[in-house]
Amino acid sequence: MSRLRYAPDLFSILLIIAVALASFFPAAGTIAQGMEVATTFMVSLLFFLHGAKLSRQAIWAGIGHWRLHLAIFAATFILFPLLGWGLRPVLEPLVTPQIYMGVLFLCALPATVQSAIAFTAMARGNMPAAICSASASTLMGIVVTPILVGLLLKQNAASGNMLEAVGKISMQLLLPFVLGHLLRPVIAGFLANNSKLVKVVDQGSILLVVYTSFSAAVISGLWQQTPWPALIGVLALSAILLALVLGITTWSARRMGLSKEDEITLVFCGSKKSLVSGIPMAQVLFSAASVGSIVLPLMIFHQLQLMVCAVLAQRYASRAPSTP
What we know:
Layout: H1 2-5, H2 10-24, H3 29-53, H4 56-63, H5 66-86, H6 88-91, H7 97-108, H8 114-122, H9 127-153, H10 162-182, H11 184-193, H12 195-219, H13 222-225, H14 228-255, H15 260-270, H16 275-285, H17 291-317
Helix pairs in contact: 2-12, 2-17, 3-10, 3-11, 3-12, 4-9, 5-7, 5-9, 5-14, 5-15, 7-9, 7-17, 8-9, 8-12, 8-15, 8-17, 9-10, 9-15, 12-17, 14-15, 14-17, 16-17
């Protein structure tokens, strides 16, 4: 029985299968386009359902939780860049200087939205605060990330058309959430009687993101363009960076006296970096010849954070229910 307790759960196994399928059978062409449409739909449905689940009081409580939001923003835009810059003499020998530029770019990115919220939901964390912080982080990153890239890499960032990114985020995430909340009086009863539906959407959206993003990386030459020692170095570097951030955010949450639900939100929202935002930003901020090596650490870190946080979410979810 003790051995079964530490066996991987079904969702973790599905994540490994998704990575393996993307490595050997990556989605390409019309299939990849169809997967992107399915991913967009699942993420939008996720926000729609969570918008319908949350009460107006819970939303205002999430917006007003300023200490938690400041801690998440500090982890995303201060802690990550400081770790990437301060540990450069120690970690850069693990990879090439060009790839470490990608690590610094990774540290400057905003938090990912869908996986941070999905993991917070799976772990029974503070969902209103997670939605507010993750969405605000993505919007702030449009302005903050180019500034941080300029400071960390001495890179002159092109302005680009960031309004298009804001519009895409609003259409995919904020609009479904608002629509779901407006329809809450109509569908709240249905969701209460079908609670497993939201869980399926949570996990399904993560699996789709893993498969589609890793497929794109494989097709772009992830395994051919990177020597194995450097690839192992990126994996080790990503593991060190993620472990430090997870440890610091967990310690900070307990030091601040936050509830377990708020600790979960800080850990999952403060440790994520967005692949969806990162790749378009890299195309704007860097030359076409260097984009591949720049985004490689982001792609590996993205997959690693999904794997590790899936296990953490399951462990958090297995705790006893909180006393009202």
